[in-house]
Amino acid sequence: MFNLVHDPNDLDLLGIVISHLEHADDIALISRSAHGLQSHLRGFELYCHSNNLTISAGKSWVMVFGCLPSLLPILLLGGEALSFRDSVRYVGAHLQSTHRHLLAAHYTVKRDSAFTAAGGIAGCDLLIGHQRLDPPIAKQLYSALVDCHLINGCEIAIDTDAHLLSMLEQVQLLFLRRMLGLSRRSILAPLFTETGIMPIRTRRVILALRYLIYLLKLGPEHYAHLALQENFNLRNSGMKCWLSDVDWAIRHLPSSTLSLPPSALLSEMSLLLLINSISKESDTYLQSQVDSSHRLALLHGRREPQKEGPSKYFARTLRHYLIHIRNHSHRRSLTRLLCGDMVPLTFRSSPARIDPLLPSEVPAKQCRSCQSPFHPESPQHIFLQCAADHTIVGLRTAFLDDISPSFPLPRNRLFSNSEALHYLKHFIFNISSTSRTARFIHEAAVHWTSLHPPLPPAEQNEDLTASGSVGGHTT
pLDDT of 21-70, one tens digit each? Predict the structure, then answer.
């Protein structure tokens, strides 16, 4: 067994001296001074010679944490001077001693790995066609190939740096938008409510808490147990430590009212309750973002249809239309409509506009087809009300004829503003009619876009601020 002679500059945890760490064939020697480190290097060299082991001095390096000395010392191993590095990889973690966040390089490397994996999944388009990958399969590939990089090291790399965290968040947003076929300006909340995927910020905090549960179960013979006890002491003294970072990350979750319990109250039960509360609070925040957006009016009060039994409420889940609509073009058009991506790019007004227009709103919001001052150019008006476009009227008639045996319709099939919104939601959120509704919406939207091209950026002025942020994400 490899042991080193005790040196006064050795580190200790609760009085237990830790002069080195061994991970398979990787060994880290630790000391508070150059003299102490050189002493350990000589001891290590002697041990290797005594056991016929070859030293790879060229693969060894020195890293200094804290203030650098004005003159770097010369440290020898096997007669060779060791090089000093400020960024290295040790046991899978990328360390950077010159950055205020020790694991800053780890964020960058994992961001790049996640981006590469996401690009590989997007490359499936070359085999199956542009954006034809079914969302359930895309979600599985995300969980297997992308998420593993986004959460890597989250147990020790607590998200206290907004810039580093945003690098991971942007990869997640990019993938989810492509998975759903949404634009880069799409509202953020539906990326999570429609796929069932948790915002990466919240997920990383929850995994860190699960790691804390694991640490609490360790016995005193484990170094990690000693490190946790030292963290208790530091936190109780008001000093920064891993536990205080975890508490900071919890407090800075979106609309968070939660915090890490005091050290004396930490237990598996209290942490499981905290994890459950964080998950519920995250879902509540996402739902509030949906409910507060006019562009997402079709998702207000939505309940998820079930194959059997009544519809149920889910804040986050992979939605029925992403599973049951097989035609990728129809699915994408319906997804863009529900997620607010057609307003104001395709239609001038959001689905929430059911009241007659004010005189000042008529030039910008009235329907470009029927020119009615009473009807804003909302999706439900174009799909179910407007009688000026004969092509859309024909598509509408065929659609209503198809579903009328299953749905009682208004007399003469004339819809008021509020009825149009109600029936459109009813058609969409019924499994038996979802696919047929998606086909009608796609064909009508394609025709409408051919007559009225998307508005230029200067005119896209309705609810653009609603693309805001979720969980610290920014567009």
Answer: 998 888 999 999 999 999 999 999 999 999 998 888 889 999 999 888 88
- 20-23 and 16-18 strand pairing: unpaired
Residue 20: strand pairing partners = 29
pTM for the whole thing?
Answer: 0.91
- Per-residue pLDDT band for 464 (boundaries 50, 70, 90) equals very low
Per DSSP, 99 falls in state S
State the amino acid at position 438 in one-letter form.
A
8 Å CB contact between 313 and 304:
yes
**Tokens standing for residue 367:** 């329907």
Taking alpha carbons only, the member of 166, 288, 152, 268 closest to residue 209 is 268
Round to whole Å and give the CA distance between 141 and 150.
14
**pLDDT tens-digit map of 215-230:** 999 999 999 999 999 9
Nearest to 421 by CA among 361, 353, 367: 353
Sign of CA dihedral 181, 183, 186, 188: positive
pLDDT digits (tens, 9 = 90+) for 367-390: 999 998 888 999 999 999 999 999
- Element (DSSP H or E) covering residue 12: strand 11-13
